[in-house]
Amino acid sequence: MKISLKSFVLLFAMLFVLLPQVTSASAEPLDEIRQLVRDFYVDDVPESVLSKGTVKEITKHLDPHSVYMSAKEYQGFVNGIEQRIVGIGVVLEEDLKGVKVISVIPEGPAARAEIQPGDVITHVNGKSIVGKSIQTAISLISGEEKTVVTVTINRIGQRDPITKKITREEITLPNVEYEMLGGNIAYIRLNSFAMESSREMNKAIQSLNGADGWIVDLRNNGGGYITAAQDIAGFFPNTVNAFQLREKNSKPMTYPSTIQPRKFNGPTHVLINEYSASASEMVSATVKEQKTATLYGQTSYGKGTMQAMYGFDDGSVLKMTTARFYSPGGQSVDKVGVKPDVITKKEAELEVSHHDQLLKKLKGYKQLPELVNVPVSKKFTVEMNTTMNWKNIDKKTVQLIQLGGQEIGASIKVVNATTVTVVPNKPLIAGSRYVLVIHPLYKNTQNKPMKQGVYLEVSVK
């Protein structure tokens, strides 16, 4: 069996979306793989390992990201990067007690079956997956569309295991999601570094044109193609270089960012967490080092290696680590991750980032004491220290913005010459935080405008 002339490089991380059922592979190209490992694996491998009798025995002694895949496994792998999947709709990571659910795709089969993040799948169709590789677990949980799989899970706070029967479905995942948050702050979530990520990111930036600030969400993004990392880095202004690669027996090489027609044209934040890996870490490390964005969240996963894909005549593929990547200035990522500029609690990354973006816009405004644990039916009383001309009240004067969300419409009711009441058009959301802004647009009875805007922060019980 000859090695295909076509090979390409990509980044791959520990997060897996369920892929189609794996079938048995044909005879392994053992000799060819031995030579590839000798020539291109990032570290030297002793002959005692290369002399093993199967590819699996060889790759077992390499790093966790080097693996031999059948044609069907490989297609599923690519589908995962491109967000084309058939499965139950969960993202998984390895766990000593099985495989842990990291996130659940909204409205997917697992979500309807009430699977929760943090659940640990221990059995699939009655077969234990404890101690099995995540690829094995995926092959068992995944399958053909409209077939049923039974999973047994352990859940924190539940004494007994929970069994769920779930019908597999084709699941369509958007690669880039975007919206304008309250206060004219643009939010873009990138789920994977796929082939079309650059085009979709450009479309998102164009759609959000005119934003006062930008939030790019790379949380739970496990990576993708190395070229996509170069492309995405190019959307950050003044980000000249994308990353540095160090291959076996070669000098370090620094690769430039891709020049993009549109860029983030305002203060930019990048959100990361412990499951942001590989290409996500490439982009995070470079924008932090070149000071072109501020990182919010928790230290990333620490998967600073690159894999090359070597295809064979039967469609099987060897995915093998051939290099380590660093920031353009040489800062290590592998096994250390990227530390945020602003460390937040888990799940609070977007809220904190949005808060800081809003406050940048309110420079010169006076901060009033925070309101804590208000009811969802809260009405806000605004009292001035002088008599006001409340005629022709401009609704733009008052903004009530949910942090991490949208502006909440509100009506303004005059109480007396110095006081108005701000009444939200719908109940506030329990557990959420808001910023109430009073812009200096009112005039007093002497026709003099307010000297200073004010704002206050609100938490809902």
UniProtKB/TrEMBL annotation:
Top EC class of this enzyme: hydrolase
CDD domains, sorted: cpPDZ_CPP-like, Peptidase_S41_CPP
GO biological process: proteolysis
SMART domains: PDZ, TSPc
Residues of the PDZ domain: 86-148
Cleaved signal peptide residues: 1-27
Enzyme Commission number: 3.4.21.102
Any one GO MF annotation of this record: serine-type endopeptidase activity
Keywords assigned by UniProt, alphabetized: Hydrolase, Protease, Serine protease, Signal
Keyword field contains Signal: yes
Database matches in PROSITE patterns: PDZ
Family: Belongs to the peptidase S41A family.
UniProt name for this protein: Carboxyl-terminal processing protease
Organism the protein comes from: Sporosarcina psychrophila
